Amino acid sequence: MTENKHRPIRIGAVSYLNSKPLVYHLGQLAENAELSLDYPSLLADQLAAGELDVALIPSIEIIRNPECELISDACVASCGPVLSVRLYSRVHPGKIKTLALDVGSRTSATLVRIFLSEKYGVHPELHPLPFGKPIEESDCDAMLMIGDRAMHLPEESFEVIWDLGEEWYNWTGLPFVFAAWAARRGVELGNLPERLSEARDQGVANLHEIAITEAPKLDISPQLAENYLRNNLHFHLGSAERNGLRLFQDLATYLPAGGADVVQRYCISTR
163 and 208, same structural domain? Predict the structure, then answer.
């Protein structure tokens, strides 16, 4: 049974720079919709709780939640260095005992645990890296940062810095999907999936304008913002991206201590 289609569709999108091309003029294109912006992990909770009908959520949430379904070929993905998802380690990765996770994302938190488990047999103790807290204030061996704040390199020197998009591509040869559009089953979407693709296409055609508008808010140059959107990211969910998602799902399933579920419980309890 579908939900009431007379009220506006409630859409949640990520507040980071990397999702701006996906919501470019979306408000005008999807007239029967209400758009709000938030952190990816919070959007996933809001979608699961029925507070949103459609959301751009971490890909791990689409994998693990049977009540969610992919509804669009628009996504946030990388095929190599992503620039905005980084692990900073004060020790060799094989010696990481404590790991601070950016509470904004569950996908990247799961991905970094996969790398440490599969490559080094390491299963560190998890700690929070709350919104707004710089990594210098954490005393963990390693810290994961995502989104806009990860684009600012810290002053501290580190033993190892991983770009997780680059690490994944070098390891698998596949793109990595960080976020995608999902809806709760039973929601009447009308032509929204087509509008999401149209908004993506318009955004990709106007990356220069988006960069000029958003760069001052992040204290980065328009050139860096445009290069990031144009060369570090892509926004189309094709067959290679779906293959990457399936491999990510398989690897997450076999993570020790509950796999992706432990990251979700951790993020909920620390935000």
Answer: no
Rg (CA), the chain: 18
Residue 238 in any domain: the answer is no
Asked if 265 and 163 sit in the same domain, the reply is yes
Same domain, yes or no: 170 and 261: yes
Q: What is the DSSP string of 145-213?
A: EESGGGGS--SS--SEEEEHHHHHHHHHSS-EEEEEEEEETT---TTHHHHHHHHHHHHHTTHHHHHHH
Report CA-CA distances (Å) from 161 to 92, 130, 259: 10, 20, 23
Q: How far apart are CA 252 and CA 257, in angstroms?
A: 11
> Which pair of structure tokens corresponds to residue 162?
């991983």
- The pLDDT tens digits for 202-214 are 999 999 999 999 9
137, 72 Cβ separation under 8 angstroms:
no
The model's pTM is 0.88
Which residues lie across from 75 on neighbouring strands? 180
Residues above pLDDT 70, as percent of the chain:
92
Q: Round to whole Å and give the CA distance between 171 and 167.
A: 6
pLDDT for position 1: 35
Neighbouring C-alpha atoms within 13 Å toward the C-beta of 132? 1
**Residue with more model confidence, 186 or 82:** 82
Residue ranges making up the domain that contains 41: 9-75+176-217
